[in-house]
């Protein structure tokens, strides 16, 4: 048995580039930056940013093109795939990219320049030709939850002490 699964949470370095294959299938490409921070032996803070090339297909690609913008924070699940190519200098190189099959937009409207009609949501793609959003985005933001003011919290008398932890 083997597993090829990647999970990333990062920010887009540029707007997604969406194009269409001859068969009409959408493809989106963009880069996501992830950062890690640590203190070195001298106690100085260090930081390293890693860039990941992301590729999405079908409906997921269209959703990314519509809602993601440079700076958007996003959760990506997918698999890593390598491909070999020959550079302009004639040297054979290997490129690695993440083929995404799930995306969750995080951070909201004010966190990273996402579209003004974005309402958040989880989007998943399957290996089938039709990938559909799990939570659809709409042009009307959802209503804020109502809060009742000055309502006392209920008193709980009967607590079960048989909790095993």
TrEMBL record:
Q: Which InterPro entries match?
A: NA-bd_OB-fold (IPR012340), Primosome_PriB/ssb (IPR000424), ssDNA-bd (IPR011344)
* Keyword annotations from UniProtKB, A to Z: DNA damage, DNA recombination, DNA repair, DNA replication, DNA-binding
Motif Important for interaction with partner proteins per UniProt: ranges: 160-165
Which Gene Ontology terms cover its molecular function? DNA binding
Stretches with biased composition (Low complexity): 112-141
Question: Which branch of life, at top level?
Answer: Bacteria
The UniProt entry, under HAMAP family, shows: SSB
PANTHER family assigned: SINGLE-STRANDED DNA-BINDING PROTEIN (PTHR10302)
Functionally, this protein is described as follows: Plays an important role in DNA replication, recombination and repair. Binds to ssDNA and to an array of partner proteins to recruit them to their sites of action during DNA metabolism.
Assembly information from the UniProt record? Homotetramer.
Which protein is depicted?
Single-stranded DNA-binding protein
What organism is this sequence from? Vitreoscilla massiliensis
């Amino acid at each position: 048995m083997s597993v090829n699964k990647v999970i990333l949470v990062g920010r887009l370095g540029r707007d997604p580039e969406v194009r269409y294959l001859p068969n009409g299938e959408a493809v989106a490409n963009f880069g996501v930056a992830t950062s890690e921070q640590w203190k070195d032996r001298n106690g100085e803070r260090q930081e390293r940013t890693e860039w990941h090339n992301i590729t999405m297909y079908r409906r997921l690609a269209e959703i990314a093109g519509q809602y993601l913008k440079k700076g958007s924070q996003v959760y990506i699940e997918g698999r890593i795939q390598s491909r070999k190519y020959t550079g302009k200098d004639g040297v054979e190189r290997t490129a690695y990219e993440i083929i995404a099959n799930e995306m969750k937009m995080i951070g909201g409207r004010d966190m990273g320049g996402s579209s003004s009609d974005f309402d958040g949501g989880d989007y998943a793609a399957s290996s089938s030709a039709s990938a559909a959003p799990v939570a659809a985005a709409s042009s009307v933001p959802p209503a804020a939850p109502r809060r009742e003011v000055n309502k006392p919290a209920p008193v709980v008398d009967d607590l079960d002490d048989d909790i095993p932890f």
